[in-house]
Amino acid sequence: MCHCKACQRRTGTVFHFGATYLKDRVRLQGARHIYEPGTDSGNRIRFYFCPNCGSNQYWENDRNPAICGITVGSFADPNFPLPSYSQWEESKHGWLDVAIVTDHFPQGRPPGPPPL
C-alpha cells in the first residue's frame, strides 16, 4: 500500500494497492499509454493505463528495474492476499486503519527489492 500524495492523486482515492512481480515472470499484452509523474521519493516511475477505459494496469520504476507492479484491482479478486507493507504513512488519512499490514514505513520502503 502506498499513501503518498502522488498515488492519492493518481488513483483518486486515499491509497494505492499493488502487487509486485519479477518482469521475466509477467507477460504484458495489449494497448497501453504511459503516465510518468514525479514521486514523493524523487524516483522516476512509469504507470501504464488502458487507452480505452483509462484503468491503471501496471507500473515500473527506475529504483527496481527487474520488477513490475500490477494494480490489485486489475485482478478483480476479493480474496487477493492482504498487503504486506504500508509506505508513506506520513501522508495516510488518519481514519484509515492499516493494522493488518506487517511492515509500516513513514516514508518509502528502505532500498532493496520489494516482497514478491
Folded structure, characterized:
This protein is mostly beta strands and 116 residues long. It has a single domain (5-94), classed as Metal Binding Protein, Guanine Nucleotide Exchange Factor, Chain A, CATH 2.170.150.70. It contains 1 helix and 7 strands. The strands form 2 sheets. The protein has a 5-stranded antiparallel β-sheet, with no helix packed on it. The chain has a two-stranded parallel sheet with strand order 6-7. A hairpin with a 5-residue loop joins β4 and β5 (67-71).
Which class do the helix and strand fractions yield?
Answer: mainly beta
| Sequence stretches where pLDDT stays below 50 over 5 or more residues | none
Supply the CATH class.
Answer: Mainly Beta
CATH architecture, by name, is Beta Complex
CATH topology: Metal Binding Protein, Guanine Nucleotide Exchange Factor, Chain A
Radius of gyration: 14 Å
Short description, anyone?
The protein is mainly β and 116 residues long. Helix content is 6%, strand content 24%. The protein has a five-stranded antiparallel β-sheet with strand order 1-5-4-3-2, with no helix packed on it.
Key features of this structure:
two-stranded parallel ribbon, mainly beta, Metal Binding Protein, Guanine Nucleotide Exchange Factor, Chain A, 116 residues, five-stranded antiparallel β-sheet
